[in-house]
Write a structure and sequence with these properties.
mainly alpha; about 0% strand; single chain; disordered N terminus; about 260 residues
């Protein structure tokens, strides 16, 4: 059974953890061997939920640590933009190559953390206390989505995956269009302004992030069921980090709309 998450939807041979097809000689040996012979075990240790939890904590810990350091050192905005661009490149490489390289994933988390630290410090300076509220909101969203998935309130189906992916691309496209229009018109399309349309768009972005988190949980469960190798846990941790960063940034923006800047 294949994972329904588009990020982790490659077949087992594509991911590099499917057993090779037996040769004719091996098939003959299997046929000639006694029926009580022990089954052949894979050459790798299969991934467990604990593996994902540990690597998830390591990845998120790296992100939080670098964010705290960049906040404390008051890293300038120009440096944060550079870190964000590097994180974007590393994230794209990790996503499209389905990388399980811990160095690549932790490097992404470190550079993304620098960017988040600067953004969070800026928001907290203007809207005192907004970062703590955003962190709590992200934690609540994570817990709610986990409960929804565990209770099977929403089931991950191929149709749901298509809708979520389409919504994600549409949302990112609207953000890009809003940015371009903003060059010529103050506020652009109004998607990122403190207005009803801005509030609605932020809520939609938070919901999309939660649905991607739902797909991440499904990918983890399918990986454990299919006997994915231990190293696949790094890709799962990377997917969780991406979704949580998305949700945190959107919650941060949404809460700032209703927080006094005095």
């Amino acid at each position: 059974m294949e994972s329904k998450n588009p990020v982790f939807s490659r077949s087992r041979p594509d991911m590099g953890w499917a057993p090779p097809a037996p040769t004719p000689d091996q098939l003959q040996n299997m046929y000639d061997s006694p029926s009580y012979a022990p089954p052949v075990r894979p050459a790798y240790r299969a991934m467990t939920i604990d593996d994902v939890v540990v690597r998830g904590f390591i990845t998120l810990g790296t992100l939080v640590l670098t964010a705290a350091v960049s906040w404390y050192l008051k890293v300038p905005g120009s440096f944060a933009i550079g870190a964000a661009l590097i994180a974007l490149v590393l994230g794209l490489v990790a996503s499209f190559k389905q990388s399980t390289n811990p160095a690549l994933i932790l490097a992404y988390a470190a550079f993304e953390g620098v960017f988040l630290g600067v953004v969070s410090r800026t928001f907290d300076y203007v809207f005192n206390g907004v970062v703590l509220q955003a962190v709590l909101g992200t934690a609540l969203a994570f817990g709610a989505v986990l409960a929804v998935y565990a209770l099977r309130v929403v089931r991950v189906t191929p149709k749901l995956v298509r809708y979520v992916v389409a919504a994600g691309f549409a949302a990112l496209g609207l953000v890009l269009v809003n940015l371009i229009v903003g060059i010529f018109v103050d506020g652009g399309l109004g998607l990122r302004t403190d207005s009803p349309i801005g509030w609605i768009f932020s809520v939609a972005m938070i919901l999309i992030g939660c649905f991607f988190l739902l797909l991440d949980f499904d990918a983890i469960e399918q990986g454990v069921r299919q006997g994915a190798p231990e190293k696949f846990a790094w890709q799962c941790a990377f997917g969780l980090t991406l979704s949580l960063v998305w949700i945190y940034l959107e919650v941060l923006r949404f809460v700032s709309y209703f927080t006094s800047s005095d």
